[in-house]
Amino acid sequence: MIRTYDGILAKHPALLGSEPTDLKAFGVCCGPGWLPILKSLFDDFEKIRQEDGLTITVFQVKEKFGELRVYVRGGNDRVQHRLRDAEWDAMFTCEDCGGRSPGVQSLGGGLNNLCGACRKKLRQSWKGR
Ligand SMILES: [Zn+2]
Which domain of life is it from (predicted)? Predict the structure, then answer.
């Protein structure tokens, strides 16, 4: 799995908490296609944190069973609502290229969330081995 940091964490130190977390240790553990969703999510978390005077700690971001999972401590209904929107967006977004995906599908014994072109590319890369 590709790990992409892309400045998201550096931009939002207030959302990372003071304790050691999986996010700090391993970074954002999902493909680059979901980065725009995550950038916007972190920006909105920061906005809500300031507006509502909250302590929000994002402690893990990863792909699991083809879905985006963002684990947050603290927060309120606005945070949860915004989080569900992002996870829903990712459900139909190709994890590799950010294009439209048909949703979670099984491929090669695992679950992933890729568009047709990226599925094809992945299958071809397996044949080359
Ligand atoms: Zn794709």
Answer: Bacteria
Alpha carbon of 53 to ligand 1 centroid (Å): 38
pTM for the model: 0.91
Q: Ligand 1: distance of its center to the CA of 100 in Å?
A: 7
Distance CA 89, CA 40 (A): 11
Rounded distance from Cα 61 to ligand 1 centre (Å): 20
Tens digits of residue pLDDT in 56-81: 999 999 999 999 999 999 999 999 99
Over 50: is that where the pLDDT of 1 sits? no
Q: CA 120, CA 18: separation in Å to the nearest integer? A: 42
- Distance CA(15)–CA(104), nearest Å, equals 29
